[in-house]
Amino acid sequence: MSAERPLLSISRKTLDEGPRELRAALPAAWLSRKLAEGAEDDAAPLGASTDGKADLRIQPAGGDNFYVQGHVHATVDGTCGRCLGPAKIPVDAELSLLLVPKVEAGRPVKGKKSKDSDGEFEFDPDEADLAHYDGETVVLDDLVREAIVLELPISPLCSEDCAGMASDPAVADRLAQARVDPRLQKLAELRDKLPAGNKK
After folding, report:
1. What is the pLDDT of residues 128-152, one digit of tens each?
2. Which residues pair with 90 in a beta bridge?
3. In sequence order, what DSSP letters do the residues of 122-163 get, joined into one string?
4. Cβ neighbours of residue 198 under 8 Å, at least 6 residues apart?
5. Domain range for 122
6. Does residue 158 belong to any structural domain of this protein?
7. Residue 14, Cβ neighbours under 10 Å: how many?
8. Which of 50, 60, 105, 164 is the 20 to 30 A CA-CA neighbour of 129?
9. Rounded CA gap, 184 and 199, in Å?
10. Where does the chain have alpha helices with state H?
């Protein structure tokens, strides 16, 4: 089985010529595959039923380094943390990354104004996260996936006014018809005498 072709990639040679805009649709099937990668066995499943989009800018940042900046938009299909039903989770993730070659990952990162950026960019290493690329092609697929996952809430909701898990009517009916323990009969009789609004 051949490896999946990257969705978001650009050659170093192209980037050496100056800044590039990378705008791409993120197909729902691609998002679902990416979101499933690396997921723990007991984690709630994540997927996507609608396409997302990436709007990125990549530019030289001195030496063999490149700066990636932009946004990723997607709607993730997950599980509501309150009612355990399906939840649609909108994601607007911001990327701000300095890409350095893997072979040079241990050396100090130094940034400078790109001669091709017309003064638009002066890199400050404190303003971006560090990531690595390998070879002559810069692939951003995994970085986009990570950006989406990091934006997901710990306990997503299907809606802000989600009432939580509804009780099973069959279980409630069985409990109502259950025989009262004789030791608690007097309490049950007192409960039955209370006004409806005070029964808890």
Report:
1. 577 777 777 888 888 899 899 989 9
2. 75
3. ---GGGSEEEEE-TTEEE-HHHHHHHHHHHS-SS--SSTT--
4. none
5. 9-151
6. no
7. 12
8. 50
9. 16
10. 12-16, 28-36, 141-151, 169-177, 185-193
